Amino acid sequence: MTRGVRAQGLGGRLFEARQAADLTLRALGQMANLGHTTISDIEKGHHIPAADTIEALAQALRVSPCWLVYGIGLKEETA
């Protein structure tokens, strides 16, 4: 696959949130306890994450899991 190509949907929103948080793949991986290649594969649309992975990513990025998965609701997680 061409370098820099990102999926739409969940992968695109994950990439958007990670960039907005100014995090590298490795930094987000450490925060969410995931491998950086797993996150890259999700962003590219090559991997569909399990619910617990989505929760870990959303929490690390401080975004709503619903927004991350479906693109609906508020992007930022409220306390």
SSE layout and pairings?
Layout: H1 10-20, H2 25-32, H3 36-43, H4 51-61, H5 65-70
Helix pairs in contact: 2-3, 2-4
Describe the protein in words.
There is one protein chain. The chain has helices at 10-20, 25-32, 36-43, 51-61, 65-70. The radius of gyration is 11 Å and the shape is globular. Helices cover 56% and strands 0% of the residues. The protein is mostly helical and 79 residues long.
In short:
The protein has helices spanning 10-20, 25-32, 36-43, 51-61, 65-70. It has 79 residues and is mainly α.
Indicate the structural class.
mainly alpha
| Strand percent estimate | under 5%
Output the number of helix runs: 5
Low-confidence stretches: none
Q: Order of helices and strands, N to C?
A: HHHHH
Distance between the termini: 39 Å
The description of the largest β-sheet is:
none
Number of strands: 0
Rg value: 11 Å
**What is the helix fraction of residues, given as a range?**
55-70%
Oligomer: single chain
Shape: globular
The mean pLDDT is 90
List keywords for this structure.
79 residues, 0% strand, mainly alpha, 5 helices
